[in-house]
Predict the structure.
Amino acid sequence: MGLEDVQMRNLEHRANRAGWLRAAVLGSNDGLVSTASLMIGIAAANKSEFLITAGLAGIAAGSMSMAVGEYVSVKSQNDIEKSDRDIEIKQLAIDPEGEFEELVDIYVQRGLTEELAKQVVTSMHKKDALEAHLRDELGHFDHTRARPVQAGVASAIAFTAGGLVPLIGALIATSNQVGAILLFTAIGLVAAGYISAKIAASPLLKTIVRIFLGGALGVAITAGIGWLVGLTGV
């Protein structure tokens, strides 16, 4: 098997998508649910004149909040990875023999004989000792490392895309805006589940049902609160 064949086989794996997929799924789902919930809550409170304005404001505020929140949280993970790297550099400089034995022990626990493990570690230390320890001791891989900017941008774009779905439903509705928002939100949740399942290669029906039920619950709770507010006249 040649290098090109190996690279093609690796494309089937989904781990390299983890950094942005989680942010995108969360963003699109949050955009759909929070925008639809906000608009339905306002409609249920008999404040329909503010419906479109509230939807636009919710999308703008939500997308920025998601982007900043995702960036900050992923950047924290990135800082931890950098700190671990710095610690490993110091340990290799202070106690290379101890680090050598530590890596040997890891390979022995994985099933290699001690002699073979020492041969492997010797070869790896000659090539790149730091990367070997980061990978096998700490589980750091380049294709799964934290990427805060990528996660923040993916989250903001996905939130905006998700939020536009119920907003479009309200804009094109001629009479029953709430019904249109619910219909478009339901379609959007199904689409979000489908896309997520395809990208992650997860069970299609299970993923769609999970995302749909979670979104529907959020919308129902917010609509109920809006209805209660409308009854009290707040």
In short: The two ends are 70 Å apart (CA to CA). Residues 51-94 form the longest helix (44 residues).
